[in-house]
Amino acid sequence: GVQLVESGGGSVQPGGSLRLSCLASGFTYSNYCMGWFRQTPGKVREVVASVDTDGSAMYGDSVKGRFTVSRDNSKNTLYLQMNNVNVEDTAKYYCVAGRTFVDFWRGRGNYWGRGTQVTVSP
């Protein structure tokens, strides 16, 4: 079956860095727009970033200039490099696969991981 398994979450201080990974299996990874959503209890789910099949990346406004999304199709792995984090980045981060870029950004991803928690605190 399809699996998206996130890793790399944890606790970090403001201004620090963290790198998330997502290992995909069970579908043709290279054919999907991949990316990250995040959610905090009581808040709306938010798009963090995406990287499409051609390698083009897009970011949510709140993370532009701080986060970098990338993919390695040879390893079926998606990454999110998080730099200069702040307390507002605290959330559960979900790896998502969308059949198209539009599907992804409209929150209609075909496959979702279980998430990895990121906590930013002094």
Count up the helices.
1
Contiguous uncertain segments of 5+ residues: none
Amino- and carboxy-terminal Cα gap: 40 Å
Indicate the percent of residues in helices. under 10%
Please tell me about this protein's structure.
The radius of gyration is 13 Å and the shape is globular. The protein is built from one helix and eleven strands, in the order βββββββββαββ. Strands 2, 4, 5, 6, 9, 10 and 11 form a seven-stranded mixed beta sheet that branches. A four-stranded antiparallel beta sheet has the order 1-3-8-7, with no helix packed on it. The protein is mainly beta and 122 residues long. The N and C termini lie far apart (40 Å).
Task: Describe the structure concisely for a colleague.
Helix content is 4%, strand content 48%.
Furnish the topology, listing elements before pairings.
Blueprint: E1 3-7, E2 10-12, E3 18-25, E4 33-39, E5 46-51, E6 57-59, E7 67-72, E8 77-82, E9 91-98, H1 101-105, E10 111-112, E11 116-120
Features:
122 residues; mainly beta; 7-stranded mixed sheet; 1 helix
